[in-house]
């Protein structure tokens, strides 16, 4: 039988076989080298870990100003609160038991040290300023009612003094920020208005009302209070919106002006 014209000569087959053997050998050698290097790295890492000291000798370096401006911790806030409550001359009622006519704490915050004292300490020439807290107290149980700021020093023993650096006087009681007691008066006035104007609101706003509503309710927000400079009068502006998704773009054009003096909500007026 005649040989196929496409058959390779014997010498080509031998050359191909040799090349295949060389490639297989190179691959095997590469695998062996990779495994050895991996073992070497593992041994080196283990030796490094075993030689590390159990405790570092490095000590953190803190800036001298760190504690000057660090905010009050939870423990410090509680410490100041308890101190104020235990000073009988201040006659402060715990907030959870306070009414609008009680003396109670509104705010406790860090009082930054005097700039000159802080610079003198940081330059290394003066003692470190004593940490202090500024406590805002609504004094509704005194006459006349006022808002006072008191500095409490984390001294040994703790001490306090009136803080009049910014105002040089007590703050008028009617100019105090809104808290839950005043919000309760506002809500009562708006709800009373909602009851009295129920039928009118129903007709004006397509069934949307303030009180006794199901899925067509009017909700409200407040602007203010606006404290009058020369009187004890306060003004609040209540504005109403439909209580539906996208409430911010659902105003109904109804605004209610609330005017009052003092803390007796029955004497406040709406316009």
UniProtKB/TrEMBL annotation:
InterPro entries: Cu_amine_oxidase_N-reg, Cu_amine_oxidase_N2
Residue stretches making up the Copper amine oxidase N2-terminal domain: 87-148
A Pfam family per the record: Cu_amine_oxidN2
Listed name of the protein: Amiloride-sensitive amine oxidase [copper-containing]-like
Single GO MF annotation: copper ion binding
Transmembrane regions: none
Stretches of the chain forming a coiled coil according to its record: none
Source organism: Paramuricea clavata
GO biological process, any: amine metabolic process
């Amino acid at each position: 039988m005649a040989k196929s014209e496409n058959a390779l000569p014997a010498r080509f087959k031998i050359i191909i076989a040799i090349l295949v053997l060389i490639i297989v050998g190179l691959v095997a050698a590469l695998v062996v080298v990779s495994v050895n290097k991996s073992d070497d790295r593992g041994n080196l890492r283990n030796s490094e870990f075993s030689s590390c000291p159990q405790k570092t000798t490095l000590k953190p370096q803190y800036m001298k100003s760190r504690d000057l401006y660090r905010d009050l911790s939870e423990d410090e806030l509680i410490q100041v609160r308890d101190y104020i409550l235990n000073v009988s001359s201040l006659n402060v009622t715990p907030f959870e038991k306070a009414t609008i006519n009680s003396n109670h704490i509104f705010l406790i915050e860090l009082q930054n040290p005097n700039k000159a004292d802080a610079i003198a300490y940081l330059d290394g020439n003066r003692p470190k300023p004593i940490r202090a807290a500024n406590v805002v107290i609504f004094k509704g149980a005194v006459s006349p009612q006022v808002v006072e700021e008191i500095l409490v020093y984390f001294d040994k023993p703790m001490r306090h003094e009136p803080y009049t650096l910014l105002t040089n006087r007590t703050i008028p009681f009617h100019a105090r920020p809104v808290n839950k007691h005043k919000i309760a008066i506002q809500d009562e006035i708006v709800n009373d208005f909602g009851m009295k104007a129920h039928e009118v609101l129903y007709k004006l706003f397509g069934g949307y009302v303030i009180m006794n509503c199901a899925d067509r309710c009017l909700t409200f927000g407040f602007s203010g209070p606006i404290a009058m400079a020369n009187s004890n009068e306060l003004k609040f502006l209540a504005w109403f919106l439909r209580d539906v998704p996208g409430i911010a773009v659902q105003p109904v054009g109804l605004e209610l002006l609330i005017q009052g003096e003092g803390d007796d909500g029955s004497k406040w007026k709406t316009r």
